[in-house]
Specification:
With 433 residues, the chain is mostly helical. Helices cover 81% and strands 0% of the residues. It has one domain: MFS general substrate transporter like domains (Growth Hormone, Chain: A, Up-down Bundle), CATH 1.20.1250. About 1% of the residues have low confidence.
């Protein structure tokens, strides 16, 4: 059986279009990999804040502020995209916004706290909008029984984009360090590399991906914001009809809170607890991306066979194991093992969650439901890193205790996942408009 079979796609969908869709994951993965995970987070704490005791808390608070804006605005933006059939147009706008604000991060240096805060808030805001909008195309491309594998194609391909961006950045950092140049020189260049890869790779998406949706009745006459909010309110009023989607969102808030900690603070933990250097951290994240690509691709096929719920549950157990390994690590070797486990779980859990959300989303409300999904993910991105930051603030920088508290999010996610009835959730999506 071919790896990328046409039978997994809806009628009229060509492989080149799925490639264009997956290229957006390829394009935007560099942002999370370099800005949030491997480079700028540690630079923010160590250089922009001057390695102040409150540096980690300032970083997590910045991400929380950005996530709060996304959480409050994305559901209505998704409803607007459905009403006006505007997913692709909005995606172009948010992509340009993220590319430009990521490039602005290159101007952040020692003491430029508020400039860096504003640039991170805006870039993460545009990134999150784009992530939600591109996910809403998934059910238009893939058959309902193949959402897992097609989602896995995108996630796994995306990690190669992250590796490309990180690899180019690492190459420049090694050269710069060989020339005796400081972080204040080479970190800004990595921001420009990230912005360039994001912008160039996303061009394939806009060239190949089609907007199949049509403007819905009354959309052109109604006020965009008002109509979108009314439609969103209707969805909330009928939440009991989509109770499995609601349980899934609750589960996502829990486990995505833990994932948000790993994304935002892995480099900080490695450098603050284990004394990793910048290049060691970048190589570590490179390894995580390789494991993530393997996990997303393999689990994409596996979850369609064993079921999205069981696949997601397996990855949550893996996250709990990863947390215990990270807490126990006193040297680099055990932490590297934890990183591999995190990578395998990262791609597979994100892919499984997106596929299950797609299975529960009514066809006429794809962007809206993925906007609600983004609401849950962004709420998690506030709760997880802020909890970590508060624990370090309250314990005079005890990162081990902070990462141990992160494991509780994965335990909660596993308990909430038990409430989800996949068959009932899919049936509700098919009979409700």
């Amino acid at each position: 059986m071919p790896l990328f079979e046409t039978a997994a796609l809806n009628d009229g969908v060509r492989k080149r279009e799925v490639f264009g869709w997956a290229m957006y994951d390829f394009a935007n993965s560099g942002y999370t990999t370099v800005v949030l995970t491997a480079v700028f987070n540690a630079y923010f704490v160590g250089v922009v804040t001057g390695d102040a005791a409150w540096g980690t808390f300032a970083w997590t608070s910045t991400l929380a502020a950005s996530s709060a804006i996304v959480m409050l605005t994305m559901p209505s933006l998704g409803a607007f995209a459905d009403l006006r059939a505007a997913k692709k147009r909005l995606l172009a706008f948010t992509t340009l916004g993220c590319v430009l604000t990521t490039a602005l991060l290159a101007r952040a240096g020692p003491g430029d706290l508020w400039f860096a805060v504003v640039a991170v808030v805006l870039s993460n805001l545009f990134y999150s909008y784009g992530e939600s909008l591109i996910a809403a195309f998934l059910p238009e491309l893939a058959r309902r029984d193949a959402l897992g594998r097609v989602s896995g194609w995108g996630w796994s391909f995306g990690y190669f984009g992250g590796m490309l961006t990180l690899g180019l950045s690492l190459g420049y950092v090694l050269w710069a360090q060989g020339q005796g140049l400081p972080a204040t020189h080479f970190v800004p260049v990595t921001m420009l590399i990230t912005a360039a890869v994001y912008g160039l790779a996303s061009l394939a998406t806009f060239a190949l991906l089609r907007e199949r949706a049509q403007p819905q009745a009354g959309a052109l006459q109604a006020s965009g914001l008002r109509a979108s909010l009314q439609r969103l309110a209707q969805t909330w009023r009928h939440a009991r009809d989509y109770r499995d989607f609601v349980w899934l969102m609750a589960c996502a808030v829990a486990y995505q809170a833990g994932i948000s900690v790993v994304i935002a603070l892995a480099a900080v933990y490695a450098e603050q607890v284990l004394g990793f250097k910048q290049t060691q951290t970048m190589v570590l994240i490179f390894l995580v991306n390789i494991a993530s690509a393997v996990g997303a691709f393999a689990f994409g096929y596996g979850q369609d066979r064993i079921g999205h719920k069981l696949a997601l549950g397996i990855t949550l157990v893996g996250w709990i194991v990863m947390t215990l390994l990270a807490v126990a690590a006193t040297d680099a070797s055990l932490f590297w093992a934890a990183a591999v486990v995190a990578g395998l779980c990262m791609g597979s859990s994100q892919s499984a969650g997106r596929a299950l959300a797609g299975a529960f989303a009514p066809e006429a409300r794809l962007a809206e439901f993925f906007g609600l999904w983004t609401f849950a993910v962004r709420l998690a991105a506030i709760i997880g890193p802020m909890t970590y930051g508060l624990v370090t603030l309250a314990t005079a920088g005890n990162h081990r205790l902070a990462i141990l508290s992160t494991g509780l999010f994965f335990v909660a996610g596993l308990l909430l996942l038990a409430k989800v009835n996949v068959g009932r959730g899919i049936a509700a999506a098919q009979v409700r408009a």
